[in-house]
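for the record, two folds in this file. i put them one after another cuz i was lazy. first one right below, seq on top, structure tokens after. the second one comes after a little note so u can tell where it starts
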Amino acid sequence: MQNKRIKLVKALSQKKERDKEGLFIAEGLRFVKEAKDRVFTVVSDSFLAGEGRGLFLEGELLQVPDGLFQAISATEHPQGILAVVRQKTYTLEELEGDAKGLYLLAEEIQDPGNLGTILRTADACGADGVILTKGTVDVFNPKVLRSTMGSIFHIPVVMEVTAQQAIRWLHSKGIRIYAAHLRGEQTPYTLPLQEGCCFVIGNEAQGLREETAKACDQLVKIPMPGQAESLNAAVAAAILLYEAVRQRQ
């Protein structure tokens, strides 16, 4: 049984296996504690003898030698605890669709750190959901998960939809859609963000697809009085989301 469990942990480093099994790896004590739907937990000998002494976690616990834990860990300096967790994803229809809600739509974001930071920021802002289009980096990628700092468990995330599907759904709920775009003629500070709204962030290198930009209600440009040509996708998302937070205070 132990060997079978270890093989599963190793296999889940691959996206195709995560998709096939509907599972992912949460690593680190804080992350594992937040993961309520654990299948089993793996701890190293030294963790259990040190930081994990007296730790109680519900469910199956598997203790392994430090060397084996290092071999199955996705981090360079592992803490000594990880869990296999059931994936929880949402469909558009499962989002609340609140007419005064706050949403973010990310189109084909490629950098794991960017996506993780976007999810963490959306969580911090109290967003009602994040929608990820097809072609976006896997939300259960270990680098994405580390960047979320646990926010993956706090905010509904819809994956693998097209931008057009998401936009139709948002419009059906009366939610206005604002796309971050260099051609934007309005700044976020002049928008009526106390009403239901969704910000759209494009791919780091290519920006938004033209058909996506055209389907949005308004193109919005973040002021850049300096010489930089563009902003990091996660930074742009943070600026837009926090303007909505400011207006709603």
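(here's the note) second protein begins now
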Amino acid sequence: MDINDYRVALDALDAELVALFCKRMELCGGVAQWKQAHGKPIYDRSRERDKLNQVSALADERFSSYTRCLYRSLMGYSRAYQHELLDAPSQISERILRARAETPELFPSRATVACQGVEGAYSSLACEKLFPEPDIRFYPAFEDVFAAVDRGECRYGVLPIENSTAGSVKANYDLLVKSDCYIVRSTRLLVGHSLLAKPGTKMEDLRVIYSHEQALDQCARFLASLPNVEVRPCANTALAAKMVAESEDPSVAALSSRHCAELYGLSTLAESVQDAGANRTRFICISKKPEIYPGANRTTLLMVLKHRPGALFSVLERCNELGVNLVKLESRPIPERDFEVQFYFDLDIAAASPTLTRLIPALEAEAEELKYLGSYLEIV
């Protein structure tokens, strides 16, 4: 046989396989109706395990493991189809549709916005990128920003969520999960850290450098070159600059933005001391209720998966089936639950796409818990 003969034979076999697959799915639909009538759950772990053992035993030994993988996928498709047939409309899908219908066409140019820190904080710079005319109110901690939005003191809050060098701002991911707030916009800001001190201070005078812990992480190599200087974390890079400006001690400095040098009357001892030249921080804008503006093309979800083999693979498979690109996947420990994790997913999918409202129920079927954190547009 030459290559064309093999291809003809495969095409004929594929036609049979597709017909058999469709027939199998129809039978699974009948199984779903029976389970509903008899009050049985769709997922039967014991039955699926026995089925995998059965089909792998039927296969040629060379293909036994491949057969098991194939049928694990087939049973995942069957469960998804059964849920599609039987489940009531997803509350999350309905929330997305309602938010799209209730959200205005234009993102507001002016609003009351909560930011952590003081004037000059990177969050306020990101806020000004998102809102041409913001009324910014500063709060001491990230928790206070969420609380201000939750209480209705501010319509929005702007917070850092991840950095290209130091990774995720884990505290804000955890607060996002605990809160009832939603992401409605995001942006990326090029972050350059400068070493700022009181006028007249020289490098050899320095004994203490203040900054936010993320900024300290982002400038680790530079700080390592200053062995006789103590590093002290504080709540915010702009607050560090303000503390240095108000201090009477000439041996202190701050890692902060160039903007803060002018704002607080400080001298720049060194510019762009971050480890990576293209050091960017991603900021999110949160609101009390979901707002989905036209152009929203990213959705963030939190999932706690069922404790069974292949649970994460099944979720990724559901995304693959519908052609949904996964742009971020991160695990975080679940507080007060030993060695259990939750997953954050960023999906590259238009909020207006019917695919999203089809995907959500399929993911709910695979998850122990699914929380919707927002659909939004990222401003680069």
